[in-house]
Amino acid sequence: MIAIYPGSFDPLTNGHLDLIERGARIFDELVVAILHNPGKTPLFSVEERLEMLRECTVGRTNVRVESFEGLLVDYARQSKAQVVLRGVRAVSDYEYELQMAWMNRQLDSTLETVFMMPAGAYPYLSSKLVREIASLGGAISGMVPPSVEERLRVRLGASPLAQKK
Ligand code: PNS
Question: Which of 51, 115, 150, 154 is 20 to 30 Å from the Cα of 1, by its Cα?
Fold first, then answer.
């Protein structure tokens, strides 16, 4: 069974990686797909996000990292995926996720959305907060892989506070 794990991944967090690991254990093939969220202006280009994801999933033989411009349901059809995998952290995610799952079902009734919980360490971790903390010089180690932390430092600059930690 092929599953797509779609998202903005701007940037990839340890919560995303946890979900990738869980998904890769359950599905025969997991396609991690960077798709466009019209509600977000990304910090990293699609190319940079592809690089980050590929660096951090290297060696995972049933995980493929791709990007797609367009509807998730079209990409799922093209990839022959039967499942969309999404992570649900706290209750606050639920409404947004349910709305997307329902819409995707309207667009393609053969596509199932499967929700998984990330590990207990990551219920409140989000790319948005990681970007905000990094931009204000806070420590983000443990929230993102070291290579992503370095890219954030280069992109946002190291503040005196970040150097202290
Ligand atoms: O990580 P995000 O930003 O929560 O992921 C949202 C994403 C990219 C999965 C969603 O915006 C999406 O599926 N974009 C592709 C366009 C599409 O299919 N939109 C209709 C969604 S119901």
Answer: 51
